[in-house]
C-alpha cells in the first residue's frame, strides 16, 4: 500500500539529484550521445573505442575528433570469452602466487580487438575504452602488440616481462563504463579545476 508513495518519493529524489548534481546524475543514468557530441569529447591525440560482440562477429567503434568508424571484427564469442578468462586469471594472485602468463593468448586478443583498428588509432596517445559485457575483466594494457617468442611467460622471468611489447607502451588506457561517463568526468574536472 505504501509502494506508490515510495515510488513517488524516489522519483522526487532522482529529480533533486539531477538538478543539484547533474554530473553525478549523468554517471548513474548515462545519456546516449550523438556522434558529434562524442567526437567533441576527444582531442586529436585521443580516441574512444567501444566493442560490441555478437553471436557470430564483433564490431569496434572508434571515435576520433574527426569522425567515427565502425570496423567489423572476426571473432568467435566463445573463443574470445575463454581467451579473456585465461589472460585475466593469469594476473590474479592465487594461494600459490602468480601462474604463467599466456603470452600467445594476450597477442591473439590484440590481433582480434586492436589490430583491425590500428590504422584508425594513428597518432593516438590516450585510449578511452568502453568494453561490452565480454571484455570488462580484460586488462587491455597486458595485450601484446607483437607475436611473443614464448607462448607462456613464467612468473619469475622478469627480463621477458620487462621487455614484452605491452599495449600500455603505446597508449595511456582508461576504461569507462559508458561513453557519456567521459563527458561527466570532464565536467567534474572543470568544476574542480583539475586536469583529466
Task: Please tell me about this protein's structure.
This protein is α/β, with parallel strands linked by helices and 196 residues long. The chain has helices at 3-20, 22-28, 35-39, 77-90, 103-113, 158-163, 180-192; strands spanning 46-53, 58-64, 67-73, 126-130, 172-175. Strands 3-2-1-4-5 form a 5-stranded mixed beta sheet. A hairpin with a 2-residue loop joins strand 2 and strand 3. Helix 1 (3-20) packs across helix 2, helix 2 packs antiparallel against helix 7 (180-192) and helix 4 crosses helix 5 (103-113). The longest helix is centred in the first third of the chain and has 18 residues, at 3-20. It is globular, with a radius of gyration of 20 Å. The mean pLDDT is 87.
Summarize the structure in short.
With 196 residues, this protein is an alpha/beta fold. It has helices at residues 3-20, 22-28, 35-39, 77-90, 103-113, 158-163, 180-192; strands at residues 46-53, 58-64, 67-73, 126-130, 172-175.
Amino acid at each position: 500500500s505504501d509502494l506508490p508513495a515510495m515510488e513517488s518519493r524516489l522519483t522526487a529524489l532522482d529529480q533533486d539529484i539531477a538538478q543539484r548534481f547533474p554530473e553525478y546524475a549523468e554517471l548513474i543514468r548515462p545519456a546516449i550521445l550523438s556522434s558529434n557530441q562524442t567526437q567533441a569529447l576527444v582531442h586529436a591525440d585521443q580516441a574512444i573505442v567501444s566493442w560490441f560482440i555478437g553471436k557470430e562477429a564483433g564490431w569496434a567503434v572508434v571515435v576520433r575528433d574527426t569522425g567515427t568508424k565502425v570496423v567489423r571484427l572476426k571473432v568467435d564469442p566463445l573463443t574470445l570469452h575463454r581467451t579473456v578468462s585465461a589472460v585475466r586469471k593469469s594476473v590474479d594472485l592465487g594461494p600459490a602466487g602468480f601462474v604463467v602468463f599466456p603470452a600467445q593468448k594476450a597477442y591473439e586478443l590484440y590481433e582480434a580487438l586492436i589490430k583491425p583498428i590500428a590504422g584508425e588509432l594513428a597518432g593516438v596517445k590516450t585510449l578511452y575504452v568502453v568494453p561490452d559485457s565480454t571484455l570488462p575483466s580484460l586488462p587491455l594494457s597486458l595485450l601484446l602488440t607483437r607475436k611473443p617468442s614464448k607462448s607462456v611467460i613464467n612468473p619469475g622471468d622478469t627480463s621477458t616481462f620487462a621487455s614484452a611489447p605491452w599495449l600500455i607502451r603505446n597508449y595511456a588506457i582508461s576504461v569507462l563504463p559508458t561513453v557519456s561517463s567521459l563527458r561527466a568526468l570532464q565536467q567534474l574536472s572543470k568544476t574542480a579545476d583539475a586536469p583529466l
